[in-house]
Specification:
263 residues; 9 helices; binds adenosine-5'-diphosphate; binds magnesium ion
């Protein structure tokens, strides 16, 4: 008989040939007061993968994303990004690491008194030494990428929810992020807009080869964007499957979560 052993928390690299995961959570615990949110979470995201995180509301999906960029620290355990423990590195290194990560907040988080172009340009103005012409060219290119060419002068208040979300995405991409975190990119959008955001997420992952983590509760989003789906419940992953297996899974939590039949 084989002994059953729990996976060891380790920071060892995988055997040669395999790429180290871009994101690695090991035994991450996080509580707020006496409320345990993450309860020993283990999670690896390999390069180039689009991982979808599903789970009930208030289960710690956004908290998990915040740990990736060091906006929250675990009470126990490690969070490594590109092989670096985000809670051990120097502040300067963390700032450099964050520049490689795009974060699409739920509401797009645009600044209302800046026009679209200036919103998208903001990370470049803050963090680069590019001149205005170079900034202009980069911003216009990203706006084209999200299928919103030529809207530099529009104000956020004049845009639909879907357009705001796409501008937020252009801004998340402006520093040529290698990893993008999407927190409920479909929230508040009608089905048509929601579908076009899904297409865009998939397109960006494919054409730019970006590693992506997407928090969503929509099956339509899973179908279009996911390579792999995890279900987070009570602070741990209760399901971790490739997309098609997830969608067809008879696991009771998957079924109740998708709220339908596999067929
Ligand atoms: N900064 C915080 N302080 C206290 N409680 C928090 C904080 N951030 C999140 N929480 C709590 O942690 C739980 C998980 O939150 P969250 O990750 O936002 O859930 P979701 O899975 O819906 O994204 C919620 O109960 C939330 O109230
Ligand atoms: Mg959330």
């Amino acid at each position: 008989m084989e002994e059953t052993t729990k996976p060891q928390a380790t920071t060892e690299r995988p055997a040669s040939g395999e790429a180290a995961p871009i994101i690695r959570f090991r035994g991450v615990h996080k509580s707020f007061g006496d409320k345990v949110i993450l309860d020993g979470l283990d999670l690896d995201v390999p390069e180039g993968q689009t991982l979808v995180i599903m789970g009930p509301s208030g289960t710690g999906k956004s908290v998990t994303l915040r740990h990736v960029i060091g906006l929250m620290q675990p009470d126990q355990g490690q969070v490594e990004v590109w092989g670096k423990d985000v809670n051990q590195i120097a502040r300067k290194e963390l700032v450099a690491l964050r520049k490689r990560i795009g974060y699409l907040f739920q509401d797009g988080a645009l600044i209302n008194w800046l026009n679209v172009g200036d919103n998208v340009a903001l990370p470049l103005r803050e963090n680069s030494k590019l001149d205005e012409a170079e900034i202009r060219e980069k911003v216009e290119h990203k706006l084209e990428l999200v299928h919103l060419p030529g809207i530099w002068d529009r104000m956020p208040g004049e845009l639909s929810g879907g357009m705001r979300k796409r501008v937020g995405l252009a801004r998340a991409l402006i520093t040529d992020a290698e990893l993008i975190l999407y927190d409920e990119p479909n929230a508040g959008l009608d089905p048509e807009m929601s579908g076009s955001i899904n297409q865009l997420i998939a397109e960006i992952a494919d054409t730019l080869g970006i590693t992506s983590v997407v928090v969503t509760h929509l099956q339509s989003c899973v179908r279009v964007v996911a390579d792999r789906v995890v279900l987070l419940e009570k602070g741990r992953l209760v399901v971790d499957l490739p997309r098609d297996e997830f969608l067809a899974s008879k696991h009771p939590r998957v079924r109740s979560f998708l709220g339908d039949d596999p067929d």
